DNA sequence: TTATATTCTGTATGAATATACAATACTATA
DNA sequence: TATAGTATTGTATATTCATACAGAATATAA
């Protein structure tokens, strides 16, 4: 049953893109999006998504995703750089080699530095190749996992 | 009547220093601190303080102060730079001139850049003077207002 | 001071959100 | 397939939070 999973991402999008004051409002939007559920289910969804309710600094409260899910705009553009540039990632021991489109190595490496992934000790960029040195104790899997989290829609 | 004022700061401290799940819990702590009020009053206090309720990332929710009240440490130090450096601010059309203590122009300008006030298009710093260029559509008043918000205890 | 306005609060209640429970749907395994 | 276990959901209800209203306290103006 993928129903809930799909619904969760729709809820997430709705919260990200709308000012939503309460669950009834969200229920309507969700219904328009083709998911008709009860308030109880929605309440559970929100808890699952760790959605919070915060002040608008003026007179009311609205739902907001947890910080982890709120990627800053500048961060987004770096993520775009990575998305646009990366062709492949391969590993050898605690080294990784990222192949990029020609001329993109620098922007990708800069982006990786800015994103400050905990697995990466440092990067060295040429024209279409980046050397990545993993931190002690970090594995290829750790880094790829981190990638999946921070840079949706990229796979090693 | 200073009662409410005092109570508000106590509430703030309690929220900052404890994990508080609901208003009843907070009522108790507040009572221990010598302020006995009803849930209704507390609810109003919380709204006034713009307190939010956010996920602990695990199984529950707790109260949290708004981000404005939780200025990051690094940001604080930039704010200190501004506080320490600025002597005066004057405007002419969409330009502002900030006079600083000698040698402080650079650190203040850097701080302003980091703080990323939406009214400022760019800055240019000498030794004791900073040119500030306002963004199209932004006024002197907008910037000063923004200052008051982000940098408490500074006036133009 | 007196009159008037404003702020603050509690009571009572309404609105919003969470959950116990039971039913159903799905998954995994033999 | 049959069975057992897990996940998802709605109903009904409990819990939590917000607010209309009225009265008391405080401030403001004359």
Specify the helix fraction band of chain A: 40-55%
Helix count of chain A equals 6
| Largest sheet report of chain A | 4 strands, antiparallel
Cα-to-Cα separation, first versus last residue of chain A: 28 Å
Counted beta strands of chain A: 6
Derived structural class of chain A: alpha+beta
* Order of adjacent strands in the largest pleated sheet of chain A: 3-4-6-5
* β-sheet strand percentage of chain A: 15-25%
CATH level 1 class label of the largest domain in chain A: Alpha Beta
Residue runs with pLDDT of under 50 for 5 or more positions of chain A? none
Average per-residue pLDDT of chain A, rounded, comes to: 78
Q: What is the CATH third-level topology name of the largest domain in chain A? A: Gyrase A, domain 2
Order of helices and strands of chain A: HHHEEHEEHEEH
- What is the count of distinct domains of chain A? 2
| Rg result of chain A | 19 Å
How would the global form of chain A be characterised?
elongated
Q: Which pair of protein chains has the largest interface, and what are the residue counts?
A: A-B, 12 and 12 residues
CATH arch. level architecture of the largest domain in chain A: 2-Layer Sandwich
Multimeric state: homodimer
Question: Any key phrases for this structure?
Answer:
Arc Repressor Mutant, subunit A; Gyrase A, domain 2; four-stranded antiparallel β-sheet; two-stranded antiparallel sheet; 6 strands; 46% helix; elongated; DNA-binding
């Amino acid at each position: 049953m993928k129903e809930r999973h799909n619904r969760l991402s729709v809820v997430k999008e709705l919260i990200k893109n709308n000012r939503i004051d309460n669950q009834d409002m969200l229920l309507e939007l969700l219904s328009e999006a083709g998911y008709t559920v009860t308030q109880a289910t929605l309440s559970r969804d929100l808890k699952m998504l760790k959605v919070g309710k915060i002040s608008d600094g003026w007179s009311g409260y609205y739902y907001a995703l947890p910080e982890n899910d709120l990627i800053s705009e500048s961060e987004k553009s770096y993520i775009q750089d990575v998305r646009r540039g990366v062709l492949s990632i391969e590993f050898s021991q605690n080294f990784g080699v990222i192949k990029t489109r020609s001329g993109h190595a620098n922007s990708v490496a800069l982006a990786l530095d800015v994103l400050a992934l905990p697995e990466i000790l440092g990067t060295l960029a040429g024209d279409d190749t980046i050397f990545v040195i993993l931190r002690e104790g970090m594995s290829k899997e750790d880094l790829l996992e981190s990638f999946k989290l921070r840079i949706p829609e990229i796979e090693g």
